[in-house]
Amino acid sequence: MLTKKELKILKQFSNCNYVKSRELEELLDVSNKTARKMISQLSDKIKFYGAVIESKPGKGYILEVRDEELFNKIFDEKEIVFVDSESRWEYLVKLFIESDTYLKIDDLAEDLYVSRKVISNSIKTAEEFLNIYNLYLIRKPHYGIQLTGEEYDKRR
Known about the structure:
Layout: H1 4-15, E1 18-19, H2 21-28, H3 32-46, E2 51-56, E3 60-65, H4 68-72, H5 85-98, H6 105-112, H7 116-132, E4 136-140, E5 144-148, H8 151-155
Antiparallel strand pairs: 1-3, 2-3, 4-5
C-alpha cells in the first residue's frame, strides 16, 4: 500500500533519472532525514513490485525497474492508501459512479483500511458533492449503497 507522498516520490523518479534527497525535501516539505527514511521505506515496499531504489554517492537516488509489468500494478488504485479525507471522498465518488452494484460500508472500510465511522463521514461528503450533479445515494438495508441518477449527470 502506497501513500500519496510515496506516489509523489515515484512520480519524481519518472521525471528525471537521479533524484537528490534535497529535492525530495522540498517536494514533500519534510526534513532531509525524513526524506531519506521515506526513500528507504519506499524501496522496501517496491521490491515486491520488481523495482528498487538505489543510492549513488554524489548523484542521488535512482529507481531501477526490473519487471515493468509487475511495477505498473503499483499504480492500481487498490494499492494506494488514502490518508486524507479529501482524496478518500473523491475516490468514493469515482467508485460509486463506476459501480453498477450496491457497495457495503464494511467492504469499503476494509478496502481502504479505515473504520466504518471514517467511511461514513467520507460518504456524507461524497454525497453532498454528488447531489450538486443530481446524483443520489440510495441506501438499502442488507444490500448497501448505490448511486442513482441520469447517465448524463454521471458523465458531467
